[in-house]
């Protein structure tokens, strides 16, 4: 089983896509654009069957229109919960 993933790369500032493959009980990511395994530098936003399931940039303009977009991501380490 495989799935399409959309996210960002640390320091890149734009959306990025890669694939994940299920092996046993885990999912493993591969970034074919950069030819490397997915690392902590990949920030996952969504996953689905293909790009249509994961659109993060979409919309329609009618007539004259202008658009700007600014994206920022804050990544923080989550502390482990102890019972």
How would you portray this structure in words?
With 83 residues, this protein is mostly beta strands. It contains no helices and five strands. The chain has strands spanning 2-9, 15-23, 26-31, 36-37, 42-48. Strands 4-3-2-1-5 form a five-stranded antiparallel sheet, with no helix packed on it. The protein is globular, with a radius of gyration of 16 Å. The relative contact order is 0.25. The model has no long low-confidence stretch (mean pLDDT 86).
- DSSP summary, beta strand count: 5
Principal-axes shape call: globular
Mean pLDDT across all amino acids: 86
Q: How do the strands of the widest beta sheet line up side by side?
A: 4-3-2-1-5
Unreliable sequence segments: none
Overall helicity? under 10%
Topology as H/E string?
EEEEE
Q: Describe the main β-sheet briefly.
A: 5 strands, antiparallel
Classify the secondary structure makeup into a structural class: mainly beta
Give the strand content.
Answer: 35-45%
- Determine Rg (CA atoms, Å): 16 Å
Short description:
This protein is an all-beta fold. It has strands spanning 2-9, 15-23, 26-31, 36-37, 42-48.
Short key terms for the protein model shown above:
globular, five-stranded antiparallel beta sheet, 83 residues, mainly beta, 5 strands
Would you spell out the secondary-structure blueprint of this structure?
Layout: E1 2-9, E2 15-23, E3 26-31, E4 36-37, E5 42-48
